[in-house]
């Protein structure tokens, strides 16, 4: 009977057992290790410390550091062992023995903080401090502390002890927006960290423990006292003899604080804008933006901005074409010519043989907070457009000579009858005479003879940013009347076509490299033919006549060759001069930011005076 009952009970319990087995097995598969949970919650990617980038001029000399904080990442093998030991002995004596968390130190801190009913003592290892500096805030909260421990745990799994220590030495804060031992050495002593004496190394090592209290610029004595305490620690731990320690303490500390590099604001603000263009073109953002609409375009723009910021914070070197002497000359020309005036000005200078931008002036007494008129100020170009839209296309199309005749009498198109500046009619004149004296009716006739559509096709090759469909249909453009206009830099760029008949969009950036010299970005534009050789020769002759005998006499720089064109808009709201010598092409604009008549300056011709001062 018992046997039968046993079989029955076994038969009933077996399905239950099987069910429990499968249930337990399923649950067991759901149980994950601590490591798996932490890896899922704490994501450690490759560690890239943001560091300062810089702009250098044509000779490789830096003139601007961009992107705070100021950090220069130094390879661990170039960081002196002495300063490594200073931080190990003062911050984390058992660094090489623990796995990221010092349990004994945590217990001590818990006891102290419990008695104080607050956070009075820390227990962070070097790994925890690194985690805090890279991934977390400096809030003194329990949540942050727990996060710090978890991040430290993951860092220890992924990186070697030496890698963690080197990262730490490049990450720590030394006040005044200075991060890392190399940047600290350069900022406080203008030396590389491996060039510092032991006294100087101990001095900068004293700062990070409390950057405000041990700020050498405000509390030098505090920093010096902590330096001496660190030296005592090194002596106690037998890294120094008593004699060495005493000698190091007695060594005078003379700070040589490095001034921030920030010069030529007009030029550097353009370079930062051009960097965005270069990144966009190289990485395809420009095409994405061209094809996108509405919200999608905004999203792409944000992505581009984020990418540019990441590039700028990676310690790049932006090699530019800035010519400091010419930049200073251009700034002086604008400021001295318009000194005491309420009128503004901008200028752009391009080197003929490279088509590189060598100088830019964003305004009189320009600083970085201002609107940079050289590339952001779109103004009506007036008669500076005539060589590009009227004379050049006409000569290129008809093969006319500089002495070919054109009427400068009254001329109307679709009821629009512009007048010559003087209001007079001049009969038949040569092309040379018509351009020298800037006769409007002659220019409009040439434009119509070429054909508006064909003439405009030449202008489109210059990549003017804000030309519109309205401009293409307007006859007024023949005399410089556009919906938005052009910038000083754009006009200078277009006039480079009169160097040899080709156009390449001018750039300030030659290349962008990392600190090892590897090229990351560079422009790869190909020149585009605009004018035939014959047209180029004739146009250079016509432009030279403007300076020698025409409206541009005050621009004459006394060079072997100089040619250009004046430009004046309706009611004299803008004064222009654009032209070239054998070495440089330049454009100058003068006017008020809110367009008003400056006819009272017309006789003085500040546009021509500035151009002459720059080019002579």
Describe this structure in words.
- Mean pLDDT is 90; it is low at 16-25 and 27-43.
- The protein contains 25 helices and 16 strands.
- The strands form 5 sheets. Strands 2-1-5-11-12 form a 5-stranded mixed sheet, covered by helices on one side. Strands 7-6-16-15-14 form a 5-stranded antiparallel sheet, with helices on both faces. A two-stranded parallel sheet has the order 3-4.
- It is of the alpha+beta class.
- 47% of the residues lie in helices and 12% in strands.
- Strand 1 and strand 2 form a beta hairpin.
- Helix 5 crosses helix 7 and helix 17 crosses helix 24 (533-549).
- It is elongated and about 100 Å long.
- Among the domains are: 2-31; 69-250, Penicillin binding protein transpeptidase fold (Orthogonal Bundle), CATH 1.10.3810.10; 384-486, Beta-lactamase (3-Layer(aba) Sandwich), CATH 3.40.710.
